[in-house]
């Protein structure tokens, strides 16, 4: 009976042809969208789709030690009252805090570093910035010194804000350099440049790190970017490590991967013990893969080959790299 009905429908109803053509169009469109990385309904996917797509390319890394870490300290922060920062270095270093550094002066200094003028000492930065800042404070940091340093513009400068947006001056520029010449010869990374926003009367956004750059002895510059653990892995989607690229970058360009070496001991212990860092897919193996360009560290090396999209944010995965547990850096 059903066969007779279908034959009759095929012979006399134009809706049958329209339905067949529409169905073929939808299936073809879904296949094409799937090839280009777009999400398609599960019902339209092939059962062996996860086995047929190409594996995620592996980003080749080079191990590198980063001797600098700089974080915002505790307590309130403002232009009038100052801000506290917490440096942590593997070697004795010098912290130079430039208040009100001109944006164009910093960009010019970083470009000069990439074109031959190596910025590796506080004096080099003083000369490269050409006095385009309001005030400079210098602190000497020991290799095991984790005490917060409070920096502040002197009251006689009478500076309460840095104007309306867009601004010509960064509120605070913090530069870490190695103090001893022998250390500058031993490390590839010779300086850390951190741009910090400090709230004032005109712009009350809370204090935070805007950019962080690493300068190398070869004249390269890399921007540090955070890696993000999944909420299930760390209790919140928060930064864990940093990234750096292997190509020189301008102050606002893309960069990828360097893991900072002086990290908090609690994080190192949790990582080594494997606490709360299970793969979000299999919930069994430890997380050891970082997906790019979203920078989510959420899967293990076995599960990463089964996905074209990040399990956390659904961004298309272009490549990945292995997250090592050691204290050294990678590039």
Description of the structure:
- With 331 residues, the chain is an alpha+beta fold.
- Among the domains are: 68-224, Immunoglobulin-like; 276-324, 2-Layer Sandwich (Herpes Virus-1), CATH 3.30.40.
- Helices cover 23% and strands 27% of the residues.
- The strands form four sheets. The protein has a six-stranded antiparallel beta sheet with strand order 5-4-7-8-9-10. It has a five-stranded mixed beta sheet with strand order 12-11-14-13-15. It has a three-stranded antiparallel beta sheet with strand order 2-3-6, with no helix packed on it.
- It is elongated and about 95 Å long.
- 31% of the residues are buried.
List the helices and strands and how they pair.
Blueprint: H1 2-12, H2 14-35, H3 49-52, E1 63-64, E2 68-72, E3 83-89, E4 93-102, H4 103-114, H5 122-128, E5 135-141, E6 149-151, E7 169-178, H6 181-186, E8 189-197, E9 208-216, E10 221-223, E11 225-229, H7 231-234, E12 239-243, H8 265-273, E13 289-292, E14 296-299, E15 319-322, E16 329-330
Parallel strand pairs: 11-14
Antiparallel strand pairs: 1-16, 2-3, 3-6, 4-5, 4-7, 7-8, 8-9, 9-10, 11-12, 13-14, 13-15
Helix pairs in contact: 1-2
Transmembrane segments: 15-38
Protein name: Cell growth regulator with RING finger domain protein 1
Domain RING-type: 279-314
